[in-house]
Amino acid sequence: MISKLISCLRYFFIFNQCTGNLSRIKDFGLAYDWSLIRGDVNKIRFGKGARILGRVVFVLDGDGIINIGDNVTIEDGAYINSHGGEITIGNNVFIGRGAIIQGMGGVIIGANSMMGPNSQIYSSNHIFKGEDVVRKSLQEKCSPVLIGENCWLCANSIITAGVTINQDEVVLPSIVRRPSHLEV
Q1: How far apart are CA 159 and CA 153, in angstroms?
Q2: What is the rounded CA–CA span in Å between residue 98 and residue 74?
Q3: Is pLDDT at 114 greater than 70 in this prediction?
Q4: What are the φ/ψ torsions at residue 117 (nearest 5 degrees)?
Q5: What is the pLDDT of residue 142?
Q6: Which of 105, 121, 139, 149 is the most exposed place for a label (fewest CB within 10 A)?
Q7: Helix residue spans in the chain (DSSP H)
C-alpha cells in the first residue's frame, strides 16, 4: 500500500501561493498548497506572475503540454486536463471558479480573455451513430478549440470541439457553442 502511494505521489505537486516558489519534496514530485499537477511536471509552464488561487487540478496525460502565459489567474476548482493534447493559455487570461478545459484536440485561449465560473471547453467529442450504441466503445473525434483575444466566456458557457471564438466576442451565460457541422 505504501509503495503504491509513493509511486502515485511522484506525479503530484501542490501549489503554495504564499511562497510562489517550487520546492522538491524528496523524489515524490513538487509540493505546493492544495493545487495538484498529475503527470510530467516538465510539460507544464507557468508564465511570470501566474496566480493559482485555491484548489486547481492540472493533468498532463501522454504527450500533453500545458502552457500558461504571464499574469494568468486561475481560480479555485478549475480543472485543466491535456488528455494528450496541447493547451495554450495566453497572457492576462482569467479562468473562473470551477472552469474546465479538456485539451485532447488542442486548445488556444488568446490574451486578455476571460472564462467565467463553471465555463467549459472540450476539444474532443464522441462519435456515435444509430440507436444501438455501446457507450463504452465510443470513439472520439478531436478538433481544436480556438478562443481569440479579448473574449469573454460567461458563466456556465460550454465550447465544444472544432469551435473558433473570434476576437472580442462574448459567449453569453449558459450557451453551448458547437460547430454547425457536428457529426452524430
Answers
A1: 9
A2: 10
A3: yes
A4: -55, 135
A5: 87
A6: 139
A7: 2-9
If you search the block for the grid coordinates 470541439, which residue do you land on?
A: 161
**What gap in Å lies between CA 70 and CA 184, rounded to an integer?**
39
Going by C-alpha positions, the residue among 66, 16, 24, 76 that lies closest to residue 46 is: 66
What 3-state class would DSSP assign to 26? coil
Question: In this model, does residue 151 exceed pLDDT 60?
Answer: yes
Query: Kind of pairing, strands 139-142 and 124-127?
Result: antiparallel
| Top-tier CATH class for 34-177 | mainly beta
Q: How far apart are CA 165 and CA 24, in angstroms?
A: 39
6 pLDDT above the threshold of 70: no
pTM, whole model, 2 decimals?
0.78
Q: Which residues contact 2 (CB under 8 A, 6 or more apart)?
A: none
